[in-house]
Amino acid sequence: IPVAGEPVDAVNAILYILRGDKVNAALSAAAVIPVAGILGTGGKVTFKANKATTVGKKVVVKKVGKKVVTSWDEMVTAVKKIKGSTSTFKYEHNPMENPKAAKDILENPDAVYGYSPSPNSKRIGDYAEYDWTDVNVVSKAKEARLQYHKDNEAIYNIVNDMNTKGYSVEDIARAANQERNANRLQSYIDQGNMSGYEKAVNSNLKNFGNEFGMTPEQAFEKYGSWDVVLEKATSANAGMDTCCGLYDDFYYLYPIGGK
To answer: What are phi and psi of 35, to 5 degrees?
Structure first.
């Protein structure tokens, strides 16, 4: 028997489609156990996920209006046709107005969130080979990115704790730098992306002479002050967040966002 949450999930999935947010649409649709929702024009849509607990599995739409569809793309097209919508995902804050993000990404209207990594980016260019138009690929990238941000909360805890105990800015910056390096490498392991891990290690060896990344001393030499080293250790890569649909969520972390 359908519970109260099921119609809500169906409606949310439709709304996310109309807004162009395919990942959250998939999340909502995957939670639905066959349930019908009525669209404003009289079209009826029924969702059925292979597994209610598995995100990214093929979602089958039994009927949209008078059209029976069996694929995700057909579902998106049919729902938009019924509503007459041509909307796409848009950020509240324009990533291209952030110089650092703009250097790392390309506008890609076919991508789930409208952007993909630039192959010329020194920071996230390796991710350009991923298919950023694939909902499953992007949902996994988004999940990994959220975990990365969660792991970085440990840095903020270290900073606050050391600051409370009266440590110097240099000591705090050193600790934050080392924790950030560890989190970056661990994120590849958590994703099971060992090829990415190996690339990161090789890049660190080539650019910094060690497998972990830029040392506190190297960071100080590059940025000129421990305050800036600390700022860099607690900032986020705006380009990767953009490609994962998270630019607005973590806008406050970017210098341009008024950190």
So the answer is: -145, 140
Would the pTM count as exceeding 0.90?
no
Residue 3's pLDDT is: 41
In angstroms, rounded to a whole number, what is the distance separating the alpha carbons of residues 176 and 232?
9
HEC readout, the chain:
CCCCHHHHHHHHHHHHHHHCCHHHHHHHHHCCCCEEEECCCCCEEEEEECCCCCCCCCEEEEEECCECCCCHHHHHHHHHHHHCCCCCCCCCCCHHHCHHHHHHEEECCCCCCCEEECCCCCCCHHHHHCCCCCHHHHHHHHHHHHHHHHHHHHHHHHHHHHHHCCCCHHHHHHHHHHHHHHHHHHHHHHHCCHHHHHHHHHHHHHHHCCCCCCCHHHHHHHHCCHHHHHHHHCCCCHHHHHHCCCCCCCHHHCHHHCC
Does residue 33 contact residue 45 with C-beta atoms inside 8 Å?
no
The strands making up 35-38's β-sheet, listed across from edge to edge, are: 35-38, 44-49, 59-64
- Residue 78 confidence (pLDDT): 55
pLDDT in tens, 2-50: 444 444 455 455 555 555 565 555 555 544 434 334 343 344 444 443 3
> Which of 190, 196, 91 shows the shortest CA–CA distance to 145?
190
Cα–Cα distance, 30 to 48 (Å, whole number): 8
The answer to whether residues 173 and 159 touch, using CB atoms and an 8 Å cutoff, is no
